[in-house]
Amino acid sequence: MSSTLACRHVRTQTSSIIATTICFLVVALLLTGLMAHVVTTMTRSANEIDDARASRAARAAIAAFVARLGATTTDNAIWDDAYRAVPAPGGADWAYENWGKTSEDYALYDGAIVIGPDRTSIVSAYAKGKPFQPGVFFGEAFYRQVKVAADPARAPLVNFVKTENGIALLASQAIQPFDDAADTTEFSTLSFYKEFTPEVLDTLSNEHELEGLRLEATPKPDFLNTPITDMKGAVIGYLVWPSKAPGSTVFHQVTPYIAAAIVILALFLVAVLMVGASEARRLRQLAQAALYEAGHDSLSGLLNRQGLLSLLEELDDTAASPPRLYLVDLDGFKAVNDAWGHAVGDDLIRLVSNALTACHPEVVAAARLGGDEFALVHVGPATCDDMERAILALFAEPFKIGGRTIEVGASIGAAARDGDIEPLELLRRADMALYRAKANGRGQAIEYDPELDQERQRVAELEALLKSAIGSGAIEAVFQPLVSASTGAVTGLEALARWRTAAGNVSPEVFIPLAERCGLIDALGVHMLRTSVAHAKTWPDLALSVNVSPVQLCNPEFAAEVISILQELDFDPKRLTLEITEGVLMTNPDQARRSIDQLKRVGIKFALDDFGCGYASIGALRQFGFDRMKIDRSLVSALDEGAKGADVLRATISLATALQIPVTAEGIENSRQAAILRDAGCDQLQGYLMGKPMSARDITGKLQEEAAA
């Protein structure tokens, strides 16, 4: 009996052990399966997270590549020197020296192409410092892009294109002046391109953590890829790189230990969790870095425009007092770039950025909005005057850069948040104030006033009326007699523009500068010349003088247009004198000289108007070969102020006499002035004493009366 009980006890224990073992095995298998499922899931997730991160990084790499070439194109296309030099003789040589030669070993682009205003002619085309044919290299896609990019209002047009060598990034933009005061509607186009070379791919790989990045014509199985499309949206290639698969790597490392013990399995789970947490932290850091870059300027480290607007949105809800925005534009920054190069200009931007940030303790943020335009956000009790003085004080002393002493000034526009206005409106108001400050001269600070908007609206309305008046012929020509000093006979007439509206007369001192600013001066000048010549044909014995704006004379098409009008109206060019002011001698002497020479060859004469109120020198009088000099009315008025005025006037006339240049005196209002000028050597007189500006009909009547007498 005892042995039976013992056997039963052993069997019971054995069964219990077996059952426990089986249970343990079942539980172990279940746990292993669950653990394997968890590990597999986490491994796959880690791979997918990294692949998603890598795909975003690839897109960011392409975007950075595009943005970098686009910014380089804008920096070079919106450049006054380029705008003047490219259309001029020698423009091809200038383009080679500034862009073509640089392409040989320049990191930002491999080639530079300048296309003329007709959008087909090649002014300059260099790849790696050597001439090349862009049409052959890029195909028709190049000229399609140039045609679209020739619009000066567009941002740089950047597209990937197929080339003979593979794929390149091509950026194009119209070559235009920095201040938007273009004197033409047809622009040359600057294009830069950068090839997708192995070096470029290596740079993108290092910058964006895309190991093994390469360019392929088709997507590769088992590889990650991002398509590259051309301007039509067609895929022309793929960026391809291997997946890092960090989850799989970790899984393979710990697989041999899973079967060894549950502890190792648990440690593996902890390790995977730690790896996942670490990867999540890394991705969050990348996201935060991308968010930072989206809201900050890469050169200065300050906020950019988007970052500034976002900050102003936050301050609208949280600021204890209304924020005030200051826009600061550097005076003379372009001259620094032109004289010392962009590298020194960049160093100056960084110095100014640091100085502005620390200029006042109540500045809560600083931003860089453009090349040399900054913004400061001020919250606190300090007054606008305090802030403006603090800002201007930064520029009282020159900056020191690499042993160079660089002086720049600043213009300031300020605006305070009034009520619940949007950040964009606040920025617009500050910009309006800055525009006025720059118009007033260097080193000015202006605070926004609603009158600025009202004035802008009035100017816009006046521009529209002026354009309509030119088109409809509402601007009329009146004529003031030019009288011989010796005989008193009328020898010529000066044509003057008059604009009469229902609300009253608009002064030429208002609408002529307006026409120059808004690009209507060429149309106004053509209208006045055509109208004046048409009237003057009825006075065959009189010479005709017509005023010409410096903007007109600097237009390369001006001379041809004048000759065309004279031929069309069959008017003798020898009867025409064009009066120009001294300003054109200072702004663009080369183009002025070309236009003057071309017109003088057909017999047109030139008079230097308003002599004595500017900076014209004896050398300029000789160089430009003026046929007549008109003394400014201020010198004539000075005759009534004493003997000193008469001495200055006689000296001025003696100068002209020595140069064998006839002299016209304008603004004569009394017989005493006329007598002094006649004795001093003036051969022609003009002023209210001789006759006020009259209509063509009144001039005809006056001439008939003189003939009858």
UniProtKB/TrEMBL annotation:
It comes from Rhizobium croatiense. It comes from the Bacteria. InterPro entries: Biofilm_reg_signaling, CHASE4, EAL_dom, EAL_sf, GGDEF_dom, Nucleotide_cyclase, Rev_trsase/Diguanyl_cyclase. The keyword Acetylation does not apply. SMART domains: EAL, GGDEF. The chain crosses the membrane at residues 257-277. Residues 321-450 form the GGDEF domain. PROSITE patterns: EAL, GGDEF. Pfam families: CHASE4 (PF05228), EAL (PF00563), GGDEF (PF00990). CDD domains: EAL, GGDEF. Keywords: Membrane, Transmembrane, Transmembrane helix. Residues 459-707 form the EAL domain. This is EAL domain-containing protein. PANTHER family: BIOFILM ARCHITECTURE MAINTENANCE PROTEIN MBAA, DIGUANYLATE CYCLASE DGCP.
